[in-house]
């Protein structure tokens, strides 16, 4: 998904004293012993008469051997050339293995993380999963290493996943178009889709709900994230007050997909779940012709009671309670 070549770490084996000597003399150090296969030294003696310390892995050797041209990194001023190799548009692909509706769709970002090295932990990215959920935003960039490795689409259909990378005032995006099969007719050999080439974009705003809710005094809720155990539950008709709301039950850390019946058909609903004192929006599709509404997959980390509030187009509110117990 995202390309970055790490800028080489400029490691000067010579000390400041050595650099001064380099100006004053034609030769600074000598070889303790030489290999017979060229101009490499098996040990390098520093000006203090002791063997020079080994250069760290992935460093650039700036020791001035006779007849050797120094790498460009050795000639740069401090700070010059940093991150010059960073190019979002040249990152490896992300691979997506598409699961059926209400099952897990997985993301393989290993090639990108490997290519980015230490930069994969920098907050540079966000994603829109195409179903109303996402991870991060233009104003809340996330590190690639923190991204969810899976997602659950509760309805079959076509979705466009859009990944964004933002760096140094520029944002690039890439897309993956996937088709999620019905849970009743899963694909025995799921497709693996690779991301497209990254291109510069000015369309950086996403209308999504975070895949991972913030922590509160009660715990945290994850929205749309996959898990090892996935449960489906259909509540009774929602109540007009939270105090009388019907309950559905799930174990902590298990994924729950709730279907709510007996709602006005073909209507839009704002769904929210209360965690502590905060209401988090839950992306939903419209109510079906049959009057049912399926919520995005929810995972609660801690035991407790969580209220789901459904606000209808008329302004009326309906409630369901999710009981999380061990």
TrEMBL record:
Residues 128-162 form the PKD domain. This is Unannotated protein. It comes from freshwater metagenome.
């Amino acid at each position: 998904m995202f390309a970055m070549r790490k800028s080489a770490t400029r490691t000067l084996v010579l000390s400041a004293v050595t650099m001064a000597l380099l100006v004053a003399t034609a030769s600074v150090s000598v070889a303790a012993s030489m290999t017979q296969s060229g101009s490499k030294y098996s040990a390098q003696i520093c000006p203090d008469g002791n063997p020079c310390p080994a250069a760290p892995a992935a460093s650039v050797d700036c020791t001035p051997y006779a007849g050797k041209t120094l790498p460009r990194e050795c000639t740069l001023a401090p700070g010059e050339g940093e991150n010059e190799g960073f190019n979002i548009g040249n990152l490896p692909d992300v691979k997506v293995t598409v699961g059926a509706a209400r099952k897990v769709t997985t993301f393989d970002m290993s090639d990108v993380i490997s290519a980015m090295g230490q930069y994969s932990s920098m907050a540079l990215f966000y994603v829109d999963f195409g179903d109303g959920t996402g991870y991060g935003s233009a104003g809340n960039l996330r590190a690639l290493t923190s991204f969810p490795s899976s997602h659950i689409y509760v309805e079959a259909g076509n979705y466009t996943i859009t990944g964004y990378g933002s760096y140094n005032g520029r944002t690039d995006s890439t897309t993956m178009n996937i088709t999620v099969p019905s849970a009743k007719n899963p694909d025995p050999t799921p497709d693996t889709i690779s991301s497209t080439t990254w291109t510069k974009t000015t369309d950086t705003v996403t209308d999504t709900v975070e895949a991972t809710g913030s922590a509160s005094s009660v715990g945290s809720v994850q929205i749309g994230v996959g898990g090892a155990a996935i449960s489906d539950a259909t509540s009774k008709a929602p109540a007009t007050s939270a105090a009388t709301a019907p309950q559905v039950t799930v174990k902590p850390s298990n994924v729950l997909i709730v279907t709510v019946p007996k709602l006005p058909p073909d209507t839009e609903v704002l769904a929210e779940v209360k965690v502590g004192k905060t209401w988090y929006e839950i992306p939903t599709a419209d109510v079906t012709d049959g009057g049912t509404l399926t919520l995005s997959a929810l995972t609660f980390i801690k035991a407790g009671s969580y209220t789901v509030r459904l606000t209808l187009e008329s302004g009326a509110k309906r409630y369901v309670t999710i009981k999380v117990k061990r």
